[in-house]
Structures are given as structure tokens and as C-alpha cells.
Amino acid sequence: MLGFVPPLPQQPGRPPSSGHMIVCGDDALARRLAVELRFIYGERVTLLLPPGRDANNPETPLTQRGRAAALFGRMSAAMNRAGNGSGTTGGNGTTGGSGDTNAGVEAVRIMEAPEPSDDVLEEAGIDRAAALALVYDDDERNIRAALTARRLNPRLRLVIRLYNRKLGQHLEELLDQAAAVAMPGIDPALLDASTTVLSDADTAAPALAATALTGSSKIIQAEGLLLRAAERPPPRPGEHADPGLCTLALLSSTTNDPAGAEGSDSSGDEAPQLLPDERAVADATGRGTVVLEAISRADPARPATRMGGRGAPLAQIFSRRLRWSALGFALAAVALVIASLLTTEDTALHSAYLTVLDLLGMNDPAEGASPARQIIQILSGIAGLLLLPLLIAAVLEAFGTLRTASSLRRPPRGLGGHVVLLGLGKIGTRVLVRLRELDIPVVVVEEDPEARGIPLARSLHVPTVIGDVTQEGVLEAAKIYRARALLALTSIDTTNLEAALYARSVKPDLRVALRLYDDEFATAVYRTLRTAHPQALTRSRSVSHLAAPSFAVAMMGRQILGAVPVERKVMLFAALEVAGHPQLEGHTVEQAFRAGAWRVLAIDATPPADRNPDLAALPPFDPEGDTAPPPSGLVWDLHPGYVLRAQDRVVIAATRRGLAELLRRQRSAVPGR
């Protein structure tokens, strides 16, 4: 499936030149990031991998070096094919072809070492490198390597992968302080970009959660505002699709083929078209679209909610059968009180009092009373006999509920319309939080009872099934036949595929989203599932493919606002200073737009001295106070004739290659780089 892999030239005795970038990692993200930097940004890259075979996939015949070489070979072949095609001309007169423009850049240098020690980093040229990415799956290893790298080269730009958010904030401050001490008088803007802590789980989780929801929006946050990129299905004959504020992408799905092709960068004409111009949108009638739907103010983040509410309601303590029995007993008692009231001349309060005494067997026999009173007492005594087992059952169930309060909750009877989530690793845990923030009912399936996300599932009262998803009966226990979607997010592609096939055999119209690494494998899986189940929706995503652009942009000294998956392609949203970008500076908004590369969405009208350096952060304000939140300085209703000035800051939507071109040209224009 990988095809021919050309050998990679090695330079073991040749030290890397200055200004190169180093990527250290042990999984797919490291390989994807190296590809992104080499083939998209045209950077010189040194890739440091652990020796031997992949520890997570010991049965794989390829070593880490072999897997990286295979990926580089396929990417190089794809770039050569694309380079032989004709380019397109953008709105400002430049060529926007998708070929490899990095012909003069040397091949990726691959090194193998068990740990990024001092000697290994020095051999990789840490003292002359421009940036270092530490993307090991182990947070502790990344922290140790970051401290070592900052000591060896205080001017180095660090990009660190950490799952622990709070620890990442503290580490970023610590490393920035170390850089400030080593470089007195450093520009605050450069210091802010000297250390960046990212999480691939946080980057990919919103997109993965959205794939499980029909018609859901992808949300990007900018200065307290929410940009909603909504996927619109192909319009029916005679209908006209709502264009929204602007069209961001044309999907491969059409009116005649609603499922589409789930295209990727290597799909050719079947791939979705990102950032089309007006003519392309007008000619694409009957195609699905991704549009910028709405812009609204972001509320403070709320925590994920528990399933079933807070506290311990009766529904969680007592079973439904016991609750119905208690209701029947209460109705019988009320009927006896009414009968006593109608057959005697007692007051309602006294009739109720006597009935309760009869039920509890505490009243004297009704000797000498009327026959009606005697019959009511006999019926009350019989009903009272039923009260004792009812009370015993209630006590036992309450004790059992309290005893198992710390255990995992089982899927309740009658549950339906939920999402079945497979895997509670780093990615699955973040996706679970996202789904619960949206109040989506979830049932989790996890093989390892000690998995990372099990405590979270317990605290959120999320129903959990412990078992191997490939075994018969596990998905049935998760009520897959009544689920709305399946999210298969384990780290093993074949396990995700097997679960999807079995789930489709149980429910053919189930919506399925798979975590798949390889684009070719994902295309083959999609086409097969679409042929077998044409009425069901199938989506596949690669976590490393979604996260790699964020890490690559951070290594260039920038941060993106968000990444939106468009089938198996990625669209990026970023904030850029117009100064230093000849493609933007001095051009109107209409002239600056380049189809298939970038589009200006908004301008920050805030004076440069008062700007928030991080547009992705919420502006500080007290939501419970009397003061309203500060107004956003972003202007979204742009006139096409507005001329972009050097002091402007803009929010753009861009493709990976388009954003790389903007950053690469600015980097080459900066002296001393």
C-alpha cells in the first residue's frame, strides 16, 4: 500500500547549517510535523526518532525510520505529480500552483536516539537551530528535553507537546523567564513566541466531536467572538443553498452523491475545494459547502455536565420497578382514605390518620363498627403487608447505590440517540469532555479499566462498558443499535475499522467517524463502506494531520486561532500583522484574496498599543458584575475596496500551503534570519 519508497540521503558526518528546525518525537505527529515543515514551509529539518520498531505497534515490520521514510517518499511523489500540473494565478498576479517550490532544500535528516540528551541535541545542531519541537507522547520526557534545550540555546524557539494544560502554562512561563534572563532587552513579541505549549488532543477534539453530529458547526474563537463554520448539505433540486457570510469551501458531496468522496490532498479532482472564488461558487450548484455562518460573543467556558444531572436523584438511587411499586402503594393508600371518608362521617384528617394506623398494623380492631369500616380495615391491613418488603427493597437498593457510587455507571435501559465513543486515551478523553459540554449523551467503551479517561467518565456519570470492542456483545452492551453515531478513536486503525464494520452490521444506517492515520487507507475504507452502505455517513480523521499545522505554525513564531477539517483536508484560521506581507500590504481586501490560498475575513481596528496579543483568549471581564464585556475590535463587515495598511492586523482563513507562503515570505524578508 505504501508503494515504492525512495532511499533518503543521509549525512551522518555533515553538521546541519544554521537556521534549521529540529523535530523530536516517537509517533505519527513527529513524522507529520517533519513533512509539514519540509514540504509545505520549505525548511531544513532534522528529525530525531527512537531506534527500533514502533513501541505502540510491535507487529509493524517498519521501524520508526522506515515509517518516516515511507511518508516522506509518498509526499515527495505527490509533490512531484502536483508540480508537473499547471499552476493557477491568484488575484494579485502571483502563481498559486501546488507544486514543490522547495527544490533547493536538502532532504530531511533522520537521526535515531533513545533520549534527546545533551550529546544528541548537540549533534542535531541545537546551538544553531531556529526552532525545536518536542512532540513525544510522554509529557515528562518533553519537559526534561525542553529544560535541556533552553540551557543549551537560550535563543531557541521551543514548541512543546503537553497534555496537562495547567502544567503547560507554568512551564511556558518558566521557559520564557529563562529566555528573558539570558537575553536582556528582548522584544516582548519575540519573547511571547519563544515558548509555545500545545496539545494535539485539544486541537483535534473539537473537530472529532463535530464529525459525530449531523449539521454541527466548527467553532473558531477570536477575541471573545465565535466564528461558526457550518457544513451545508447539497441543496435539493429547486432549492438554493444559504451562502452565509462567505463560502469557505466546496465539498465533494453533490445532490446526486450526498456522501461525497471524503477527499484529501491526494484525491485530485475528487478533493474539496478550499477558499473558492465567486465564479467557482456560482458554477458549483448542487454541491455541499462550508460557509462562515455566524459571529457571536463567546460566553465563559462552562464545565462538562454530568449525565443525569447533579446530586443523587431518585432515578439514580431506586430502580424503575421499585418506583412504580411505591407509586401503586401510595395510590392504594389514597383510595382507602377516600373510601373511609365516603363511608363514615369522619373528617378527612381523621380518616387519613386511621388509614395510616391500619396500614401499619397499629390500630385496634374495628369491633362494633359498621361493615364498611371493618372492610376498609381489612384491606388496609393487606396493603400494609405489602409495605414491609417495599421498605426492605428500598433500603437494599439505596445501600447498593451508595456502595457503587464510585464505580462506573452501566448504560441505562431505554437509552437512545447517544454517541458511542471507543477509547478513553488522550484524544478520547478530550472528545468526551467536548461532547458533554454540548450536552450530548455518550456511552464509552474502553478495554483498559485503568485508562486515562476512566476517572473523568466516573465523575461525569457517563455510562461505560469495559471490554474489547472487537469481542461480540460489547457494542450491544453500549446500545449501539439505538445510537446516533459511533466515534472510533482508539490508536489502532484496524481496531477502529473492525468496530465500524461490526457496528454497521448491527445498524446499517449508523453514522460512523473513524480515527485513521493513512490517507490512502482512509480513502479505501471510505469507498468500501459507502458502496456497502450508501445511505449511511462515514467520516475519517487523522489526529496528527489535524494537529501538525498548529505545531508547524508555532515553530514559525505564530499561533493559529483554529483548524477546521474539510473532509480530510484542513483549513486554518490565523491572525497576522499586515506589515511584512507584500501579498497583503497596500492591496484592497478584494485584491488580497487569493483563491485556494487565503482570504481576509476581519480587521482588528484596535490601536496597536491596546491590542490583545492572543486573539484566541477571552477578554478579561467579570460576568457577574454590572459592567458589560469589552467590545471586540474586530471588524467583520469589510468593504472590498478597503486598503490594507502596515499597522493593520487581520484574521485570515488559509490553506496549509497558503499560510506557509505568507509566513515563508515574511521570514525571508526579516533581516538576520
TrEMBL record:
Keyword Transmembrane in record: yes
Record's compositionally biased regions (Pro residues):
1-15
| Residue stretches making up the RCK N-terminal domain | 416-538
Q: Where is this region: Disordered?
A: 1-20, 609-630
Protein's name according to its UniProt entry:
NAD-binding protein
Membrane spanning stretches: 324-343, 375-400
Annotated signal sequence is none
Please name the InterPro entries in this protein's record: NAD(P)-bd_dom_sf, RCK_N, Trk_Ktr_HKT_K-transport
Among PANTHER family, the record links this protein to: POTASSIUM CHANNEL PROTEIN 2-RELATED-RELATED, VOLTAGE-GATED POTASSIUM CHANNEL KCH
Keywords carried by this UniProt record:
Membrane, Transmembrane, Transmembrane helix
Family matches, as SUPFAM superfamilies: NAD(P)-binding Rossmann-fold domains
